[in-house]
Amino acid sequence: MSKSMGSSQFSKPVARLLVLVLVQFLFLSNVCLGARKLTSLYQPPTMALTYHGGALLQGDLPVSILWYGNFSPAQKSIIADFLLSLNHKDQKTAKPSVTQWWNSVQTYMKKAGQKPTNVSLSTQLSDHNCSLGKTLKKSQITELARRANFGRGWLTLVLTAPDVAVEGFCMRNCGFHDSNRKSNSVFIWVGNSATQCPGKCAWPFHQPIYGPQTPPLVAPNADVGVDGMVVNIATLLAGTVTNPFANGFYLGSTEAPLEAASACTGVYGKGAYPGYAGELLVDANSGASYNAVGVNGWKYLLPALFDPYTSQCETIV
Hints:
Layout lengths: L11 H30 L8 E2 L7 E10 L4 H13 L12 H14 L5 E11 L7 E2 L1 H11 L6 E6 L4 E2 L8 E6 L4 E7 L6 H4 L22 H19 L6 E2 L30 E2 L6 E2 L1 E2 L5 E2 L4 E2 L6 E2 L3
Parallel strand pairs: 2-3, 2-5, 4-6, 5-8
Antiparallel strand pairs: 1-9, 7-8, 10-11, 12-13, 14-15
């Protein structure tokens, strides 16, 4: 008599083994499914730049420049045009414009219930002979800023030439901003890194010192040092206006805060990731990459800004 094809064809030990294997499979499946479900439900905490209630640089903001060392007329024009373009209202200016970028900074003023910041270019001084020498301490930058500061509430921009070494330059930073609360004045220092550390302070116009070795972009004004300076000036200007006295908008500690632009370091266009600046505009004639145009036709690469409403790095291209 033939046997049926049911479970009775297996011996009891084999049947118990099959049941054990089936139970283990279901258990492991549940563990894996549970882990996958928990992972999909996890949302990383949203990064937010908190307003700490301090004064911001609202209203009219005259900017004076101290050129320390040798800068050519063209180099001065590139940087001066950037500053002149921040609050320019001429509708004929090519888009995307520097003004559009600056309008993103103004969202911080609106969020804090303060007036928009209207930057104007004021006095420019030149110290061609480097009166304090070509190796400067950080305290000497403060002294230079004091020399070029002509009024309360002004912003002073101290810019050092490629052959001027500054304490901490390249090792710790490419520039910094600081303030004097007694005189209600603020200043920014940025160095020209063309010969000292272009791989750090002029990226993405030079091969990076570390990380993915992607080909460098062509600098929009054919000057790696100065085009890199504009990136750093823009980054620090956004941070200075929104966090001038270390109690404005920032994330983290007051000693090393993330500010409006520094919270988006390395991001210039959509789709950016480490080693890739993002999707940018490219000049058909020079092959240079840029994302903003000034009032006199100079092109710039400006950093993304952290949007205080969406908590995202926003670009203008």
